[in-house]
Amino acid sequence: MRSQFRGLFLCLAGFAFMMLAAAAQAQTAAPAVEPPPEKVRELLQLLNDPGVKAWLETRPAPAAEAPEETFGTRIAGAEAAVRARIAGMRSALPRLPQEVAQASAVAFRDVNAGRPGAVMAILATLVAFGAG
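Structure (tokenized):
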């Protein structure tokens, strides 16, 4: 058992040593700065030209791009949709008794031809299955 822990410790120590060596090598190896290509030099010379600077200053600013949709804007949109839905339900609440009465009248007339017992039995069965 002791030899297993020793082996595990040696493996972890070797892994840590390799990680430290790789980190040290990455820090010491700085990329060499290459001189810019000819086209970049020409661009920089053109941007420093006073005539080009004056022309760039007189141009209108580019149109702003549409802002990127973030998680916060999606949450705000969802919140606005939920609030609108709740407001719609609140405005429909006063009409609820009238709508229920109208629905029951249609059900009694159309489905059961004037016999409310069968419709109520079907409704009670459906409610019982839904509750179960």
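The longest helix spans residues 2-28. Residues 96 and 102 are 10 Å apart (CA to CA).
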